[in-house]
């Protein structure tokens, strides 16, 4: 859209500042994992299966001295959270509260938004283990296939700070997303071709956006053992939602590590606004 393209240079500075984690409510107390994003995190995990949402979270959250960021999740077509259980538990082990929509048709994002509402209620409930432990100011959205499109759809929610659509289906409009995006494709995906994911990336010229194409991955690589998807998604959310500076260099600056890792990635692209996000301090 021409009007938006003309506004990009004027808004670039503000957007780049928005791409960096906020320091107004920064919590630097999350344990470092020393860059081992694909290894289990320091938290034991628990699962709470509800009628609309399944929660994956740090088991001892009631004793936690801090509030924990949220990731809302959307499933692929006809899939349920249990299909992605290893990935969702992996995020929970790193300190995130994952609210996974139970619906197998997540494209509208209604159940994903309901996950945020549920956690707001649990946070306010003095009888809940989540009471005063949910960081509702730090929310990310992710999902696979149809759920990846749903992550883009809920990216227009003012409560959602960043999105990671994984092999997203076509029924979404990235023009309404307001936070940074890491869009992931599979090199050998014959269901959601990489060119379709690149289309979302190309259209996301109003936000910092990165496109990553996982070498040799097909559409179902993320199902079950998430393999090459767990590390980069964890690093992205730890940087965006936890202020984990160790994760910054994975994506930003001249030393961008995923850009140099041709063993894992068959294609990595960063748009001009992503290129303006500072890398690690020397």
From TrEMBL:
Secretion signal span: 1-26
Taxonomic lineage: Bacteria, Bacillati, Actinomycetota, Actinomycetes, Streptosporangiales
Superkingdom classification of source: Bacteria
UniProt entry keywords in alphabetical sequence: Periplasm, Signal
Localization per Swiss-Prot or TrEMBL: Periplasm
Pfam family of the protein (one): PETase
Enzyme class: hydrolase
Domain PET hydrolase/cutinase-like residue range list: 54-247
Entry-linked InterPro entries: AB_hydrolase_fold (IPR029058), PET_hydrolase/cutinase-like (IPR041127)
Gene3D superfamilies: alpha/beta hydrolase (3.40.50.1820)
EC number assigned by the record: 3.1.1.101
Catalytic activity: a butanoate ester + H2O = an aliphatic alcohol + butanoate + H(+); (ethylene terephthalate)(n) + H2O = (ethylene terephthalate)(n-1) + 4-[(2-hydroxyethoxy)carbonyl]benzoate + H(+)
Protein name: poly(ethylene terephthalate) hydrolase
